[in-house]
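Q: Hi! First time doing this. I have a protein sequence and I read that you can turn it into a structure. Is that right? Here it is:
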Amino acid sequence: MSELRLGRLPRVGVARVTIVLPEPLKEELDLYSAEHSRLYEPVETAALIPHMLEAFLRSDRGWRSRKAKLAGARQRPKTPLTGGVIRNDSDDGDPG
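A: Yes, that's right. Below is the predicted 3D structure, encoded as C-alpha cells:
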C-alpha cells in the first residue's frame, strides 16, 4: 500500500489559531485524517492541518522564491561601515 504524502507527524511546539472551513473541506480533511490514523497512529484532523499547510508552503515555488528574495534583502548590509555598497539610483553608471 502506498504511503500518504504527509507521512508521519513530527513533534513540535505549537501556536493556537482558529479557522473557519467550508463543510466539504472539513469532511475531506476528516476522511484524510481517518486514513492517516489507519496507516500511522491515531490523530485528530486539527493536528494534521498545520503539517498540511507547511507541506504546501514548502512545495510552492513562487513563495520559496519570494521568501529567498525577502531574506536576501534583509541580510544586505545597509552602510559602508558594514561592508555594504552605496547605491545611487540617479547614477547612470558613468564614472565622470
